[in-house]
Design a protein that fits this description.
Layout lengths: L1 E4 L6 E4 L3 H4 L2 H14 L1 E4 L6 H11 L1 E3 L15 E4 L2 E2 L2 E2 L22 E8 L7 E5 H7 L2 H7 L3 E4 L16 H11 L3 E4 L1 E3 L6 E3 L6 E4 L4 H15 L6 E3 L6 E5 L3 E5 L9 E8 L2
Bound molecules: fe (ii) ion (FE2).
Fe (ii) ion binds next to loops.
């Protein structure tokens, strides 16, 4: 197996490796090491059954079943199906997942540390995934901002991105806000954290899941979020993964910022996702 960095900020592509190789302890060890050192690893065109994908995930940690039962794989509950396809008048999976910049599930108290995707049916022409490094974002903050955020805690919330459900119809905006506060209370995370594998500092939080930095006033929060958007979306620092059939993409959720891009109309796209808990 060869490990080739994708950019100087984030990601490594692993070549010359198939599922049978990854079953070997030494090859798996190199795979895990590449993931922990590069934040994101990609193996192009690796055939995996859903069961093999979960097997591989379970060597990294413990695959966690997706919260919404109806979007789980029918036989393998640890797989969440991300799809815009419809079969027998029923959506195959969850459509429009993560189509904005974020780190996975920062709105919960203890997000699973790894995410693994396998491209089942992926158009090469759209539905790409953008990646950026939260280490790189932190490093590029102006010194005055590094000082302003040092030691601070931020509040995270899913409120800006929560989907409106059928049973919310008829609620006033105030009632909906109260419902969100009750069912999805804001959580706190230190804004600057240290990666246990590399010892590097990174920024934990992206504007869409950030509510506010504790101790900042409205103007400071707004200025900080604008700055983050600018740093995260800097095209020169973003890796765009253009999917090919059966790509395996795994990342560390805390240090990897990412965003899904739109799928062109009339084109089907299905990806199998596993969330991996450790410890
Ligand atoms: Fe995500």
């Amino acid at each position: 197996m060869a490990v080739e960095p994708i950019t100087e900020f984030i990601g490594a592509e692993l070549t010359g490796v198939g599922y049978a190789d990854l079953e070997r302890d030494d090859v798996f060890g190199e795979f895990l090491d590449a993931l922990n050192q590069h934040e994101l690893v990609i193996v192009r065109g690796i055939e995996l059954t859903p069961r093999e994908q979960v097997e591989l995930a379970s060597r990294i940690g413990t695959p966690v079943p997706f919260v919404l039962e109806r979007y789980r794989h029918p036989e393998i509950k640890e797989i969440m199906i991300s799809s815009n396809e419809v079969r027998d008048n029923r959506p195959v999976g969850v459509a429009r997942v993560g189509n904005f910049w974020h780190q996975d599930s920062t709105f919960v108290a203890d997000p699973a540390p790894y995410t693994m995707l396998h491209g089942v049916n992926v158009p090469g022409t759209s539905g790409h995934t953008l990646f950026a490094s939260a280490v790189d974002v932190y490093e590029r903050l102006p010194e005055e901002w590094k000082q302003k955020i040092a030691g601070r805690t931020a509040l995270h919330s899913v409120a800006k991105r929560l989907r409106i459900r059928e049973d919310h119809v008829g609620l006033s905006v105030a009632e909906l806000k109260a419902w969100i506060d009750h069912h999805h209370p804001k959580v706190e995370h230190p804004l600057v954290q240290t990666d246990p594998h590399t010892g590097r500092e990174f920024l934990y939080g992206a504007p869409e899941y950030l509510d506010s930095v504790i101790g900042f006033d409205h103007n400071e929060n707004a200025a900080f979020f604008d700055l983050l958007d600018e740093l995260i979306q800097d095209e020169k620092r973003v890796y765009e993964h253009r999917w090919t059939r059966h790509d395996l993409v795994v990342w560390k959720t805390r240090t990897t910022l990412h965003a899904a891009t739109d799928v062109e109309p009339g084109v089907g796209r299905t990806v199998h996702r596993v969330s991996i808990e450790v410890g």
